[in-house]
Amino acid sequence: MIRLLATCAALALAAPAAAETVAIVDATLMTMTDAGEIAQGTIVIRDGRIMAIGPDVTVPAGARVVDGRGGVVTPGFIQADSTLGAVEVSQVPASADRATHSRSISAGFDISLGLNPDSILLPVSRLAGITHAVTTPLYDDRPGRDLQFSGQAAVIDLAQRSDMVTRPRVAMVLEMGEGGAERAGGARGAAIVALRATLDDVRHFARHRAAYDRGEGRPQRLSRIDLEALVPVAEGRMPLIVKVDRASDIVDMIAFAHDEGLRIILDGAEEGWRVAAAIAAAKVPVIVDPLADLPRSFSQIGASMDNAARLHAAGVTVILKTGSGVAHRARELRYGAGNAVAWGLPHAAAVAAITINPARVFGVADHAGSLAEGGAADLVLWSGDPLEPLSQPRLIFVEGIETPLTARPLDLRDRYAP
Amino acid sequence: MIAAAAALAGCTASAPPPSPASSAPTVDHDPFPSSYRPPAARPVALVGATVLTATGEEIANGTLLMEGGRIAAVGAALPVPPGYRTIDARGKWITPGVIDAHSHLGAWSQPETVDAHNDVNELTDPNTAQVWVEHSVWPQDPGFDTAREAGVTTLMILPGSGNLFGGRSVTLKNVRSVTVQGMKFPGAPYGLKIACGENPKRVYGGRGRSPSTRMGNVAGYRKAWIDAADYARKWDAWEQGDRAGDPPKRDLQLETLAGVLRGEILVQNHCYRADEMANMIDIAHEFGFRIRTFHHASEAYKIAPLLVREDICVATWANWWGYKMEVFDAIEENAALIDAAGGCAIIHSDDPILIQRLNQEAAAALSAAWRAGIEISKAQAVRWFTANPAKALGIADKVGTLEPGKNADVVLWSADPFSIYARAEKVWIDGAIVFDRADPAYRRHSDFLIGQAGERR
């Protein structure tokens, strides 16, 4: 029975979405636009785009009608701080392209190159409503290596197509706090000085490219590749993801970014609630793991389950993630968002924190993150509240492509289930 | 058992003094005894809740009575006897206290990134059956508090999985205590941690010594069991003989293994792959012991009938997979397929974050079951984090279900515990309240967090 259903779903998929019109009727629509939440709404999809959406939409003749009663439609979820597409088995290094220990490529590492659309992790994550990920480089620390940056993140889609990069080089990634201190020789004071020196080098390089081409530039700690990659960061065009947790590190980095004219996104920020007003005043978005409530280090002493709720209440743009560099467990994103709601984050804000907020912050709001007429059909029909484990997806569109409700673990299940 | 017999002998004052030979000291099998004593508590009645008893029942408008540290009664709309403090539980849910069959709390304490707090793996030899994890447990680990706030009342702390034989486990009551003795679950049997697969062969193969392969792992287990059988035979002969002369010299490592062969210590076996679990079952048959639980057991679903026939519990996750080769085939339905086959399925944590929401992990597993058309009720699935781990830990006669006479370990949830929005509101251990969300006095009591910048309330 299970096998039969899966086969039917796969056959249905074989017909390209562009060839038919699909109407989801009578569902709750969480639009993530000014239209808010629409009860008993209809959404019409044609040629991969949302043709109409609202409470009183007429279903076009010939459309495939999907009964959405009792269901909820959300935009596809976006997993921030992920390594989806860049890893197959975490402890098999050859199956992972999420970090480099090259001595000459740090900021220059571009994770958008060489990703794997056939990764079996993509359909697994899709079944949790995730249609996009911010694939973010990790550090591969080795003795004697002290590179500051882990590289440049990219937004990808999970449709399993060769053209999977939605937007490359969306942000540079830098860990400060304890990790940054360790790479700079063991102290925060050294890490901040080193970062200032790096930015000065980058600006000098940007002003004197011709001299460098002639081999007449001043001596540089970073490679030419890394300097080039950092120019848009130093000029405030590319955001810098700064991984910090301690309240004082957050405050320090906000001040540093202000002084240097950098656009930053805080990632981690487990003590963010203690300095929420300062983060809000600086208009800095924050990526948080809503389940991080333990003092895992001396930088996370104040970790708390209501971090996301307090940041939101203070007016901070909150993005929720699942752990750090998550791939296999990305499917827990919606559960984390549900827990944030249990600890005080409004439900709509929790859904925004995994849809429209990351879409805007990473510049892909025209691909994903909301349900709007004329926009890409990037959405999931859920059997109920999308944040509840007991709900399951019934229909998934990734940027207009209807994807099957199958994945390798389900194939294994069907092979062994009695 | 032997210690109890010795104590009894000492009480028979009228008996003739024993001869010097038979009075030779027997081994004290409980040298670090539990000092836990449940505090006296007033009788409590929880009234009007939906009760999941973990015996397979879901009771609407249920009443639960706790008295003298025990469950006095449970049923629909029971009358409340005089002298009880009544708590209005309408709209809320009740389950037995959550039991985690796999935790390292205290042995790898927060802050976990601090090397000084990692006391979980004695990675000096592939066989460290002589170590007892209770001697690593730091009761001030803040993780005990966050777990208690999530309804965890009992947990088994295991040594890590880097060795073939990691050492003895300990079962704890999740009560505040300065000493581990004050947390030890009275009467709970010890466990022996055994690890299959990648971890031991990676640790020791990386040092150029055995085991460096899975066949090396198996040779290591069998050699140890041969030695243990020899040791047990010598001790049994001495104990049952005339006890003339010196007893055999004690060996802590072999003593633990011999305890397994005698059925006094339960085997808790970290093992992911189906083929390796089958090998471990054959080793158990070869040496005449039983495996109580396979932990992680990602491929248990591939051999469900074998595990049911052998009466071995499966402690697993719903969502964890793919971090190494031996967990590549993990599926969300693992627990449900074991349950559906009539086996003992457990959702465990192995993690200080996940231990705070075993109910949610069970909900994810249940949802996957429903997606596959496997009919399992919430009343049954609640057993995955209550009654079944109680069985795995050998304490099912005391905790794990809400039945008259059982210890009153109880969680009052704000909502259906299979909902993501449910939070533990009140938690009782042996009828004494240990957490009340409405009372800040019950929050974050670890000495480590006192006076720190992040301390709340």
Explained architecture:
Chain A has two domains: 1-75 and 369-418, Urease, subunit C, domain 1, CATH 2.30.40.10; 77-368, Metal-dependent hydrolases (TIM Barrel). Helices cover 29% and strands 23% of the residues of chain A. Chain A has helices spanning 2-14, 121-126, 177-183, 188-207, 209-213, 224-234, 247-260, 276-281, 307-313, 333-342, 347-352, 356-361, 408-416; strands at 21-30, 37-46, 49-54, 64-67, 72-75, 77-82, 130-135, 149-157, 165-175, 240-244, 264-268, 286-288, 318-320, 379-382, 393-398, 401-403. In chain A, strands 1, 2, 3, 4, 5, 14, 15 and 16 form an eight-stranded mixed sheet that branches. In chain A, strands 6-7-8-9-10-11-12-13 form an eight-stranded mixed sheet. In chain A, strand 6 (77-82), helix 2 and strand 7 form a beta-alpha-beta unit. In chain A, helix 3 (177-183) packs across helix 4 (188-207). The longest helix of chain A has 20 residues, at 188-207. Chain A starts with a helix and ends with a helix. Chain B has helices at residues 2-11, 142-149, 198-205, 214-240, 252-261, 274-287, 304-309, 334-340, 358-371, 378-381, 387-392, and strands at 44-52, 58-67, 70-76, 85-88, 93-96, 98-103, 152-157, 165-173, 191-195, 266-271, 291-296, 313-316, 345-347, 410-413, 424-429, 432-436. Chain B has a domain at 98-401: Alpha-Beta Barrel (TIM Barrel). Chain B is of the alpha/beta class. Chains A and B meet through helix 10 and helix 13 of A and helix 2 and helix 9 of B. Chain B: This is Imidazolonepropionase-like amidohydrolase. Chain B: Pfam families: Amidohydro_3. Chain B: Residues 303-435 form the Amidohydrolase domain.
